[in-house]
Design goal:
By secondary structure, this protein is of the alpha+beta class. The chain has helices at 39-44, 46-53, 137-146, 169-172; strands at 13-22, 25-32, 60-64, 75-81, 107-111, 117-120, 177-180, 189-192. The strands form three sheets. It has a four-stranded antiparallel beta sheet. A two-stranded antiparallel sheet has the order 5-6. The protein has a two-stranded antiparallel sheet with strand order 7-8.
Length: 194
């Protein structure tokens, strides 16, 4: 990408950073000319930009640079991968090799297209999982739940709705577990109800 001088040479942009090699692709941060298009306009044209660059749109990752990162409504960060970034072999979760894990830390969730680790905080969070069938809702819930399992004294809560002859739900399920989180430095504790 080079800086344009106007309509005859393409859109007028000012390169703030790059282009430079970053991981398995090229990164650039650029400003659009004042009084013209905004970053939102550029983001909406991702497919057209990919076509101009001669790559598939899955290889083009663009975002607006926000104020906390030194940006404004006309600054765009763009990364173009050498190939489809999602064709790489699966990366094992860091949870796989851990003996213990503190659920008070963010759960390692996966990687983005650039290979950056994505973590999700789960303590004091509410989550809603909705979407089309076969899109990973159950897998996502299981992944976040599995993070609490490497902590040895933790058992996932289990209960039975069956009633005993006396009509008590708790009496019908002697293995009902209640998990209590106490403070960030401690592990989970359990108590059995009878």
């Amino acid at each position: 990408m080079k800086q344009g001088k106007g309509d005859e040479e393409g859109p007028k942009v000012t390169c703030i950073m790059g282009p430079l090699r970053e991981g398995n692709g090229w990164a650039v941060v650029f400003d659009l000319s004042r009084g013209g298009k905004t970053a939102a306009d550029v983001l909406a044209k991702r497919t057209a930009i990919a076509a101009e660059l001669g790559v598939d749109e899955i290889q083009v990752i663009m975002s607006r640079v926000r104020a906390h990162g030194g940006g404004h409504a006309g600054r765009v960060s763009m990364w173009v991968a050498d190939d489809d970034p999602y064709l790489a072999p699966p990366v094992p979760s860091p949870l796989e090799g851990m003996d213990t894990f503190s659920i008070w830390d963010a759960v390692p969730f996966g990687q983005d297209a650039r290979g950056n680790r994505v973590s999700v905080p789960v303590v004091w969070q509410s989550m809603f999982f909705g979407g089309l069938p076969r899109r990973g809702k159950t897998f996502t819930q299981r992944l976040l739940t599995a993070a609490g399992l490497p902590t040895p004294p933790t058992r996932p809560p289990a209960s039975s709705r069956a009633r005993s002859a006396s009509g008590s739900a708790a009496a019908a399920s002697p293995t009902t577990a209640v998990t209590t989180l106490t403070e960030p430095s401690s592990t989970c504790t359990n108590s059995s109800l009878m």
